[in-house]
Amino acid sequence: MTDDWRKWETPPGGTGDQFDGAAIGALAHLYRGEVYRSTIWRTRLDTTTNWSVVTLGIALSITYASPTASPLPLLLVGILISMFLILEARRYRFFNVWRARARWIETKFYAPMLLRSSCPEPGEWQDVLAKDYLTPEYHIGFWRAMGRRIRRNYMWIFSFQAVAYYGKIIIHPTPLSSYSEFFDRMALGPIPGVGVFLLGIAFHSAWISLALVTGVRDKAKHAGKDGVGGMG
User: Is the whole model's pTM more than 0.85, yes or no?
Assistant: First the structure.
């Protein structure tokens, strides 16, 4: 063990510029607690994603059960998946607090320990962590959280839903023979097929735009940034 690692144990009456054994132990338990909480909330995120996949699967089974089955379930499931996305974005804001704290301790405390070239010492990173405990707050807004969940999971779910819906329109009950027939099949009661088509374009354009805009803002805000904001 090098001389640098002796700095970890501050003798009684020392300057207190380095962590003593009690402080190291307390930080280790703190880290374990943050990892545990982030794991619990990560499981909750997976739950809502699983609900979305299962409901989409049920809608697919109903819609493709026969050539004469209605494509309406694939439209209605989009509303349900959107609700799950809203729930997941809210849960992600909680998860991100615990994840960010655990990651902050890893990079500012454990990483210097493992590098063996320097010892983690009290400093500004401690002040940032303490501030986050004294005045806890979400590290990201709701829309950015939703954008992250879209980029991670829901872009694939929404894309598959759209492909399945338009595939149903194209092949059932018989393959399309004209563009007019395409819009006729999309009509829902008093809503003409063109209106349904435009609503679909607006819906998918909205989540794609949200994913792209929040992705750009994430890079601009957090690239190489320290502080509570950098933790998020």
Answer: no
